[in-house]
TrEMBL record, chain A:
It comes from Bacillus badius. Heterodimer of LeuC and LeuD. Pathway: Amino-acid biosynthesis; L-leucine biosynthesis; L-leucine from 3-methyl-2-oxobutanoate: step 2/4. [4Fe-4S] cluster binds at C347, C407, C410. Binds 1 [4Fe-4S] cluster per subunit. Residues 8-457 form the Aconitase/3-isopropylmalate dehydratase large subunit alpha/beta/alpha domain. This is 3-isopropylmalate dehydratase large subunit.
TrEMBL record, chain B:
CDD domains: IPMI_Swivel. The keyword Lyase applies. It comes from Bacillus badius. This is 3-isopropylmalate dehydratase small subunit. Residues 1-123 form the Aconitase A/isopropylmalate dehydratase small subunit swivel domain.
Length: 470, 197
């Protein structure tokens, strides 16, 4: 048999119906649901007198709208309506829900893996583009729109055209102070925001294999920022060990059987991709974005580029527009840019290892005067784990605010908003205009780089900060 | 959704690349639980200043484009968030056709599901349309069945579309009803999958 990629193996296992001239009808193993992109889908079911086909393969939580302080006071009546609507829909259609008071509540892409719902070989969808996160486990997972949410609710399937495969190979090792976030930002800076359009990515190479499961989630999370709906990593022993004992994972003997099946999904030696892009781990520095899409970024030692240095007219125009919006002059050293806000959180970087890495930098230091810095754990489980280790106290002592779990300032649908004109060092995934609040200026960074910006008041190469404790 | 085949309309040129769905419909407007009524918020921060006044320099606010039904934009249109509120806002505002050199994958699917025809043309063809659309009242004529686009001044281009999506758009099918016809196959897949695991 011809060698296959993990992508092809999962795809072939899920074809329900194949017909010449049509996309494949794929079976969906897990459907994650949140409050923002689901109400119209449930309404559609009701209007057509349809049922949820497999409530047992559907799991819901609230994350986009939830407050991260004063949990029980939701000031915005429209936000509240969206949350109560999800509650009613889950009750009506028999779907398990981790609501705002539930101990499992959290960002949908943090709790899926945490609960062991996310497993290798599954097809996973959610009405959220960062569903690519679950690809870290060797699952075929991608974001869908609300019409597709309705389609999956009603049929547990989706029509999908077979995409092309893209290998992103990261050779060698990452240097000291360089994180998974820097790796993926560097890939996007090098190849652009539509390098992956029409493809599913598989990340390969030594630097990828070396990453922990949480780091792999950070990489796969931002596949969509490179234009790819899905990004996967072949399952290996780390994947298996992460899932062992998780609540929704198989248990006992069943687990060992499942583990053999998962490991067999890894891409075969000699399998071919439609396209391969490479980057050397050693060439990656801690990254900072300076523009208004995730490809507009550089290593921390660089300066803001001159729009004129770009080859294409369209790029010159969009870079000039971005610098105008960001109020940055070409030639400014990235290390000279001051920050007003620091946000540590989001489905990209809010897991326990992210918080540990940021706390390591914050420990024994103080947030600069005039800087507002908040830490928002990805889930209630992450929050409790962090508190058990005393990370909350490290952050609080340093002058950070310690919050409840949710999407928070990544997209500012709740009250966590960066005011107009203010500049934020953010561990989230998008630096689009107005993303964190109308007129806000977002710079994407890793958790240690965000903490370094908080304690120095400007972007700082975290590698220069000596350890102050020990 | 509403079927679409022959369509003609005034063209609005939005000469920007990588237009993301956060710009098309900012997040503060995602809290509604209906599908309708998003058009008023389309490109909100580009159309209006902080006080809610129209930004006169934004192309869609210019009088000659007020009746536009065809939007032409730069590459990678609709990137970012999967929010279907973006095509809902475009449709509700009055755009039935969007033309660009490329679209983000999720956005493209979301358009099809809502009866919006998203058409990929070459960069050169898009540039030519952008230039021509500066003239007031410039219209394009689209024929989905024949997969071609023309104007009254000699412009003509063909476009590609997946044959299945084309049938969906031409017929205005309810996709869920189509899939539910395959109930037997879905059930037998489920039985088979259960016996393996």
């Amino acid at each position: 048999m011809a060698p296959k990629t993990v992508i092809e193996k999962i795809w072939e296992q899920h074809v329900v119906h194949r017909e010449e001239g049509k996309p494949d009808l794929l079976y969906i193993d897990l459907h994650l649901v949140h409050e923002v992109t689901s109400p119209q889908a449930f309404e559609g079911l009701r209007m057509n007198n349809r049922q949820v086909r497999r409530p047992d393969l559907t799991y819901a939580t609230m994350d986009h709208n939830v407050p991260t302080v004063n949990r029980h006071i939701i000031n915005d009546p429209v936000s509240k309506k969206q949350m109560t609507t999800l509650e009613q829909n889950c009750k009506e259609f028999g779907i398990e829900l981790a609501d705002i008071n539930h101990p499992d509540q959290g960002i949908v892409h943090v709790i899926g893996p945490e609960l062991g719902l996310t497993q290798p070989g599954k097809t996973i969808v959610c009405g959220d583009s960062h569903t690519s996160t679950h690809g870290a486990f060797g699952a075929l997972s991608f974001g869908i729109g609300t019409s597709e949410v309705e389609h999956v609710l009603a049929t547990q399937t989706l029509w999908q055209s077979r995409p092309k495969t893209l290998q992103v190979k990261v050779t060698g090792k990452l240097g000291f102070g360089v994180t998974a976030k820097d790796l993926i930002l560097a890939v996007i800076a090098k190849y652009g925001v539509n390098a992956g359009t029409g493809y599913i990515i598989e990340y390969t190479g030594e630097a990828i294999r070396e990453l922990s499961m949480e780091e792999r989630m950070t990489v796969c999370n931002m596949s969509i920022e490179a234009g790819a709906r899905a990004g996967l990593i072949s399952p290996d022993e780390k994947t298996v060990e992460y899932l062992r004992g998780r609540r929704y994972a198989p248990q006992g003997e069943e687990f060992e059987k499942a583990a053999q099946h998962w490991l067999a999904l890894a891409t075969d030696e000699g399998a071919e991709y439609d396209l391969t892009l490479e980057i050397a781990g050693e060439e990656i520095e801690p990254q900072v974005t300076w523009g208004t899409n995730p490809s507009m970024g550089s290593g921390i030692s660089a300066s803001v580029p001159d729009p004129e240095q770009f080859e294409r007219q369209a790029d010159r125009e969009s870079v000039a527009r971005a610098l105008d919006y960001m109020e940055l002059a070409a030639g400014t050293q990235l290390e000279e840019i001051p920050v007003d806000y620091v946000f540590i959180g989001s489905c990209t970087n809010s897991r326990i290892s992210d918080l540990r890495a940021a706390a390591e930098v914050a420990k024994g230091r103080k947030v600069q005067e005039g800087v507002t810095a908040i830490v928002v754990p990805g889930s209630q489980t992450v929050k409790q784990a962090a508190e058990a280790e005393g990370l909350d106290q490290i952050f609080i002592d340093a002058g950070f605010e310690w919050r409840e779990s949710g999407c928070s300032m990544c997209l500012a649908m709740n009250d966590d908003i960066v005011p107009s004109g203010k500049r934020c060092a953010s561990t989230s995934n998008r630096n689009f205009e107005g993303r964190q609040g109308n007129g806000s200026k977002t710079h994407l960074v890793s958790p240690p780089m965000a903490a370094a910006a908080a304690v120095t008041g400007k972007f700082t190469d975290v590698r220069k900060l000596a350890k102050v404790h020990q | 959704m509403e079927a679409i085949n022959k369509f003609n309309g005034i063209v609005c040129p939005l000469n920007r690349v990588n237009v993301d769905t956060d710009q098309i419909i900012p997040k503060q407007f995602l809290k509604r639980i209906e599908r309708q009524g998003f058009g008023q918020f389309l490109f909100h921060h580009w159309r209006f200043d902080d006080d809610g006044n129209k930004r006169e320099d934004f192309i869609m606010n210019q009088m000659q484009y007020e009746q536009a039904e065809i939007l032409v934009a730069g590459e990678n249109f609709g990137c970012g968030s999967s929010r279907e509120h973006a095509p809902w806002a475009l449709l509700d505002y009055g755009f039935r056709v969007i033309i660009a050199p490329s679209f983000a994958d999720i956005f493209y699917n979301n358009c099809v599901k809502n009866g919006i025809l998203a058409i990929r043309l070459t960069e050169a063809e898009v540039s030519e349309i952008m230039e021509k659309a500066k003239e007031p009242g410039y219209r394009l004529f689209i024929n989905l069945k024949d997969q071609d686009i023309t104007d009254r001044k000699g412009f003509a281009a063909d476009f590609d579309i997946d044959p299945y999506w084309k049938q969906m758009l031409l017929n205005g099918w309810d996709e869920i009803a189509v899939t539910l016809n395959l109930e037997d196959e879905i059930s037998s897949y489920e039985k088979k999958a259960e016996s393996i695991s």
